[in-house]
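Cross-check.
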Amino acid sequence: MKHTFGEALLKARKQKGLSQQELAESIPVTRASVANWEADRRLPNATIIAKIAEVLEIDVSELLDTANKDDIHPNVIIVDDNKIVLTGGAPIIEKALPNAKVACFTKPKEAIKYAKENRISLAFLDIELGLTNGIDLCNELLEINPRMNIIFLTAYPEYSVDAWNTKASGFMVKPITFEGVKEQLKKLRHPFPTGGII
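Predicted model, tokenized:
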């Protein structure tokens, strides 16, 4: 049976006889960070994973292996202030990622709240989002989960230079197409199971 990173961390911490607070102080991070990792809401970066393994006296590969394997049903979000893009794009992404749970948002704040409560594997972000822009949203989402893959969506190709200054995986000019999504999935910084479509 496949275990998530959070399950592996929880098991190793309990075997070591440490509380969340004790582990947090040893790294050092907040207790809330440990709680989020164990609940699979967030993933630490590789440096912190190595420190966790050192503190828990386990092989770092035990944690890295689980961190590199996303859930069988990865969470994918689309953020665009145009509802037509969401209603047209969601079915295409679901076809390309048949095992994924796809959530759509017109408001960046709602997407951020969702990302804090769920581990997101992939986010499609419009660059122009009313008063907010997708590049700022990208940075906020990556603070929540540094292993989230970001693909920018825009009707304006000239934004691609700004987009590449972030840690995004890709860039798509609208409209969202099945072939375009498949091509972007090949370029993810942090690959995850795609359901055998690509």
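Residues 5-67 form a domain with the 434 Repressor (Amino-terminal Domain) fold (CATH 1.10.260.40). DSSP finds ten helices and seven strands in the chain. Passed to J.P. for a second look.
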